[in-house]
Model the fold of this input.
Amino acid sequence: MTVTARKIQPADAQAVSRLICRTLQITNAADYSPEELAAVAASLSPEKILWRATWMHFYVFCHGETIVGCGAVGPYWDKPDECSFFNIFVLPEYQGRGVGSRIIETLEQDELFLRCKRAEIPASLTAVNFYRKFGYDFKNGITTPDEEKLYRLEKYRK
Done:
């Protein structure tokens, strides 16, 4: 399956927001309450996605004309040598078909990642094992989720 990557465009925001909401409702439903999922979905409205794209490198991943995944890399607070990955989602019907791997590969080729010594991922309960396959490990050895029900994973570049 061919999946192309490109930077998000304003016209993509609605589709990306729908993709995230749908993925949360189906893929993450076993790990989070409906209220928790609704809060995350509300924080990723089309307007908020476009705002994020002003300070992150936000990508969409397309199979033909359909946006099937998204992901972003941005600065880690004020640290010029650290970055974080955000908003990595794949439509449920495309999961397990290499789209997630393509997202990680793209983010790890982005200039923000390449200039960093360390990258962090706030990983959901649902996705923690996926990220660990790419060499991301528990930050400070903490193997339990935080108060946001996220694992803090990190990877040091060589």
Notes: The mean pLDDT is 97.
